[in-house]
Design a protein that fits this description.
By secondary structure, the chain is of the alpha+beta class. It folds into two domains: about 80 residues; about 120 residues, 2-Layer Sandwich (Alpha-Beta Plaits). The longest helix has about 80 residues. The relative contact order is 0.11.
Amino acid sequence: MVNINFVPDDYVQDNESRRINLMYLVLFVVLMIALVGSFMTIKIRQRACSVKEKLVNTKMTQIQETIKQFEELQAKRGAMMRTALTTAELIEPVPRSVLLASLTNNLPSGVSLLKLNLIQKEPKQSSQSASSSKYQAAQAKKAAAENDVSPETLIETHIDIEGMAPSDLQVAAYIERLSNSSLLDNVALVESKEHKIEDSTFRRFKLTAMLGKDVHLTREDVKKIRDGAENTLWNF
């Protein structure tokens, strides 16, 4: 028996073409979805990397600023030392450079000086002495002159010291060293408080002291103190 197909060949070919086109369209849509997904994933990763890069750049900038501040501090400290070693001298026999060299030589490890102030003034008088007349004061100065006592030797030199230390242990060690120095008297702690720089914690301290009276240094003593200060400067 002969099978007769009443469906036109053109209709069959059109159906096959539509199926093929539909399949291509589905594959195209799947491919586009995959491409869009990959593109979005790449963008998300790029944004994450960009955020991390910004954080790293910010930290690097902060570190560079910290290093710059540290270098500036070191430069200022070195300049202060070099300037102080060549500036005018205190009332003899203790030159200013020798006094500053002594303060530097006694610095414990990790301790640095930030500020140094020297104040010369007459000693405090008692209430009875304060009530004395100008004539009596003039007579006292005249008597001192007759006894070959220089009026400058009656002036007290007060020293204000400010610095930074890792802890109070180094501050205490510095006070002990200065107290044992033959140049200083009445070394006392004014304050010691916590001070933070970035993530590090230091102790910012203030000391007071007085230049000792009747201090007489030999040339060997002066040379030894200055040589020690130069070595300390090179170790900054």
